[in-house]
Design goal:
single chain; Aspartate Aminotransferase, domain 2; Aspartate Aminotransferase, domain 1; five-stranded mixed β-sheet; 12 strands; about 40% helix; binds pyridoxal-5'-phosphate; PyrdxlP-dep_Trfase_small; EC 2.5.1.-; O-succinylhomoserine sulfhydrylase
Amino acid sequence: MFPRFVIGGANVERDPMSDSWNHRTRAVHAGTRRSQYGEVSEAIFLTQGFVYDSAEAAAQRFESLGEDEFIYARYGNPTVAMFEERIASIEGAEDAFATASGMAAVNGAMMSMLKAGDHVVSSRALFGSCLYILEEILTRFGVEVTFVDGTDLDQWRDAIRPDTKAVFLETISNPTLEVIDLRAVARLAHAAGATVVVDNVFATPIFSRAFEMGADVVIYSATKHIDGQGRGLGGVILGSREFIRKTVEPYLKHTGGAMSPFNAWMMLKGLETLELRVREQERTARHLAAALQGHKGLSRVIYPGLPDHAQAQVVAEQMGGAGTVIALDVTGGRDAAFRVLNALKLVTISNNLGDAKSIVTHPATTTHQRLSEAQRAHLGITDGLLRLSVGLEDAGDLMADLTAALDVI
Ligand SMILES: *Cc1c(COP(=O)(O)O)cnc(C)c1O
């Protein structure tokens, strides 16, 4: 089924069938490069350099790099290329560039496309480090950034100008799980000629078909659901071949945000089980959110899959699932929230998400500690708010642990 070839050889063939496969099949097979040994599991090419047959061959490769030819792992590596091709295939993107972390991807996408004098409109409810890049770094280099409430289309309409170069948003925001009407925002942005950049981490490639909704560039932290087992950092930028090769690649290959071959292998194998894992995690999250609603220890249960979620309509129309994260507002503020955290026996206190293990975070004192009290209040990050990333454990065991912990207050 796959052509067998010597890595670095000139006779590389692509499997012509891959475009017609369903995404479930592509998640397991796309991008596979098999060496002369005929291995079943993709090889880890743990090498930063590549040898050339002759001085002429080296000169030739530097002059024009053919497909499946490599020079240096900061530019590209066979295992990294397998991951890039597989996720691009699942996502329906022309091309992808893998990065050392999700933040290297956000930074790489934004810094490579923007210059002093450009204008960006961004949703305000962002992952802390994304906010830092937009608010502190880009502005330091003369990029003007306007922040809007992501769920308010009028604010997007007012903020986007004829000279707006890009809009940035997280489809499902962290940690308050607002869902943005991506289709509508993309329409407004495209009317102004702006590039739509989406951080799709919370939604995963399975629940949000961001390109079909109008995104031009999609970013993942592979650290989260793609690895899904809490082992390593990674990220990826997906987009048109033109954008990835002409804008992103030159920036990243010279600034050093490349993904390591070992982590690329982990993420590549993670993609094979991604859909099975996140669908199961989503099923459990849905069950827990519904079961916890109305609990007397909670003033709010936020989950995009609940019928009373403020953007339930957008979720129904634009997403294939509501995600694997729930936000719980514990009555009694920070002290009560801490008591609940400390009483949990199965769910661990940490700040990753998308893991097979269920994880709970108190955003106000950890991930969003850097924000002022006023900023947190504006984003709905109360002192009682907990972010629960639902793992692969039994739903009944999780429910028992959560209700026992809530009982202490
Ligand atoms: C975790 C995360 C990132 C950053 O990813 P890293 O791999 O930790 O660098 C960016 N955006 C969102 C929404 C995230 O959850």
